[in-house]
Amino acid sequence: MADVSVVSSASSAAMTGPRGAKPKRAMNPRNIMLYGILIVVCVYYLLPLWVMVMTSLKGMPEVRLGNIFSPPVEITFQPWVKAWSEACTGLNCDGLSRGFWNSVMITVPSVIVSIAIASVNGYALINWKFKGSDIFFTILIFGSFIPYQIMLYPIVILLREAGIYGTLWGLIVVHTIFGMPILTLLFRNYFSSIPEELFKAARVDGAGFWGIYFRIMLPMSLPIFVVALILQVTGIWNDFLFGVVFTKPDIYPMTVQLNNIVNSVQGVKEYNVNMAATVLTGLVPLIVYFVSGKLFVRGIAAGAVKG
Predict the structure, then answer these.
(1) Which residues pair with 92 in a beta bridge?
(2) Mean of the per-residue pLDDT values for the chain?
(3) Sign of the dihedral through C-alpha 36, 279, 183, 108
(4) Cα 65 to chain center, whole Å?
């Protein structure tokens, strides 16, 4: 009897059909508006990149025709070659190649040192609180809201007295210090989302400060390290103000040399070379983001901006 009742109930349910709310149509007015706005925003941000790439692949006779949105009739990579190795940036005519390696020598140690110190700071502030740690953290975060411009002259004096003004090491120190407050905040908030029981269990097992940091915190913190890496690489590589103030022409970073190329008033204005130089300068942050973009989103979602 039980089997008969089960079969009859199943057959009646099949005859009446599925219950519950009807699934929404994919193309309702709400979705049309949502996707329409997203498409407009994407076009708005991608159109300048399209113009730069297309112009950089054209010769000057084709550029003078004024069809900036059209693809090149005849593709040429000569503007890229000239931007990299022949364009004049003041008295030097070796293109962006010298500035690229200057930017690499500035970015790599600045990123490594600032992230290493900030991660230890965030770990200590959340797991090894000391007397006055909250005051120290408040002062550190307050420093991230001070405009850079009002600190330029005092920093110039400090670097001059230290004997490193106008050198790559001076600029590395500046980028490392200015990246510290916001990175410390990111690491502190991320480490606060890691269960405290893990830290206490490690303390019971006899692990010390560095043992817990290297064996527990670091293996669980890859997403936030990627967040810090992208923020620092983007900020340091794209910096112009510090580069032009704290260095000299022989060691200008890539962005300063790009400015010198674009604003050059000697001879014919070569827009294709300017566009190629602009794209070359922005390639490194774009590559870093696209390679590690998923981990960047994971790091943000896992506590990078939680207070």
Answers:
(1) 89
(2) 82
(3) positive
(4) 36
Is the confidence at residue 142, as pLDDT, over 90? no
Contact 201, 152 (CB under 8 A): no
Which domains are seen in the chain, by residue range? 28-76 (no CATH), 97-304 (1.10.3720.10)
Confidence of residue 54 (pLDDT cuts 50, 70, 90): very high
**Eight-class DSSP state of 129:** -
Q: How far apart are the C-alpha atoms of 120 and 183, rounded to whole Å?
A: 10
Calculate the alpha carbon distances from 173 to 181, 202, 206, 250, 301 in Å.
14, 35, 36, 19, 31
Over pLDDT 70: what percentage of the chain?
Answer: 85
pLDDT confidence of 19, banded at 50, 70, 90? low
Residues 6+ apart with CB under 8 A from 144: 181, 182, 185
Strand partners, 89: 92
Task: For residue 234, give the nearest of 287, 185, 277, 198 by alpha carbon.
Answer: 287
With a CB cutoff of 8 Å and minimum separation 6, the contacts of 86 are 93, 94, 95
What is the pTM for the complete model shown? 0.79
CB 257 within 8 A of CB 84: no
208-212, 241-245, 295-299 — which is least confidently predicted? Answer: 295-299
Listed range (97-101, 133-137, 249-253, 280-284) with the worst mean pLDDT:
133-137
| Per-residue burial over 165-189, b = 16 or more CB atoms within 10 Å of its CB, e = otherwise | bbbbebbbbbbbbbbbbbbbbbbbb
What average pLDDT does range 139-163 have in this prediction?
Answer: 84
Q: What is the DSSP letter of 303?
A: I
Helix (H) or strand (E) holding 53: helix 29-56
Determine the residue type at 180.
M
